[in-house]
Structure to design on (224 residues):
């Protein structure tokens, strides 16, 4: 148990639809990062939020967006879904800004785009 | 960008055997972490180890930052050690993102 939860566990969408994934961090963790993990690969960094502001972004298009809330919850929104968006989406939280300490990952949301 | 290479890509062990997993990285890093991903997808942090050696039970890790590699040792392996082991680094310019290798898939047979 890492104290980080994600919902839903699984999700099936069709191409062109929009999806919102949710993450609840440990209390006191001000930083949340989102990663996309395609089958058989390592996770790829999407973006990071620190105290409700985007703090860094990977090579993902603007249709991937996020929000972080004061209650240590966060969202990942993906618009205009494409088949290649099918993946396991992971959120990770930590106390400090950046990657200065241990990252705690949630169990992930498995998204299938048909 | 920085490259993270892990070896071997796949490993099959008999229960009780020892193993060494390697992570090479192509540039200076601020930190390095080892993770274990179980068959259900949960990533568990094993070590936060930008340099030096740490031990936790049957697992230990060593990072030699000047030579740009890290090793994860698993002793007396158990079937519950099966899964994928990832090495992840943060670039030296504090990019605030972890860059993962492609992982070592470990299967421990009873």
């Amino acid at each position: 148990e890492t104290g980080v939860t994600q919902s839903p566990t699984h999700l099936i969408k069709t191409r062109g639809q929009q999806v919102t994934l949710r993450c609840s961090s440990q209390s006191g963790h001000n930083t949340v990062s989102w990663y996309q993990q395609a089958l058989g690969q390592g996770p790829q960094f999407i973006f990071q939020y620190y105290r409700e502001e985007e703090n860094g972004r990977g090579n993902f298009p603007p249709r991937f967006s996020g929000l972080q809330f004061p209650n240590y919850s966060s969202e990942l929104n993906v618009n205009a879904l494409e088949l290649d968006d099918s993946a396991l989406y992971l959120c990770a939280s930590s106390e400090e800004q950046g990657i200065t300490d241990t990252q705690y990952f949630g169990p992930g949301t498995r998204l299938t785009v048909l | 960008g920085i490259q993270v290479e892990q070896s071997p890509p796949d490993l099959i062990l008999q229960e009780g055997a020892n193993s060494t997993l390697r992570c090479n990285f192509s540039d200076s890093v601020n930190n390095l972490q080892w993770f274990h991903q179980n068959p259900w997808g949960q990533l568990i942090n094993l070590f936060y180890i930008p340099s030096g050696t740490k031990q936790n039970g049957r697992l230990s890790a060593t990072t030699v930052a000047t030579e740009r590699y890290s090793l994860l040792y698993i002793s007396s392996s158990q079937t519950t050690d099966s899964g994928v082991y990832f090495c992840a680094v943060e670039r030296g310019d504090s990019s605030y993102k972890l860059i993962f290798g492609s992982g070592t898939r470990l299967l421990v047979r009873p």
Summary: The CA atoms of residues 36 and 85 of chain B lie 5 Å apart. The mean pLDDT of chain B is 93. The longest strand of chain B covers residues 29-37. Chain B is about 0% helix and 60% strand.
